Known about the structure:
- The chain has one domain.
- The protein contains 13 helices and no strands.
- Helix 1 runs antiparallel to helix 2 and helix 7 crosses helix 13.
- It starts with a helix and ends in a 10-residue tail after the last helix.
Amino acid sequence: MNYLAxxxxxxxxxxxxxxxxxxxxxxxxxxxxxxxxxxxVVQGIAVHRQVDSFTDLHDQVSRSKARFSPSRRRYAGIIVxxxxxxxxxxxxxxxxxxxxxxxxEEAYQLLRDNQRYLPARMHRVxxxxxxxxxxxxxxxxxxxxTVYERMSRRLRHPNTLAGAIEEVVxxxxxxxxxxxxxxxxxxxxxxxxxxxxxxxxxxx
Length: 204
């Protein structure tokens, strides 16, 4: 799952959602991170890590990755992560009554208001994310292709992300069915772990 899904799954508390978003930019044990961030942020990071573990081990996600050609199989995890955000954006109203556009604007405001908690690398990313509306752009398949191109350029080694959208378009119905099977199970898993005190903060 990518930025939009991790925000969506991050929790009801704003700082939990922030933790879900910044988790990929953090390293180390939760106990160590607790010295740098409020408990709600660390809770969001913990949920993010649980989501990633569940996703990586799920048979349906593995099936999605296996659909891609051998030349792109190495990057299939990245391709699927971004594409699943597209399916979430496209089918948003199936999973929540909250307006997608309002949710996204609140997420951008959350980032603006809490820059003191952003890891150093995110200070460079966030202004571009907001200006180019990365979260809103997940809705169209054309923009997903642009995301793959951007990610391809960002990687320092040769890769096959550029042009991946051609395979995505060819496999689109099958991949969407994979997502429709997987995402409710992920939601159920997240709801279960949110009932637990993962790290020093019990969500309300």
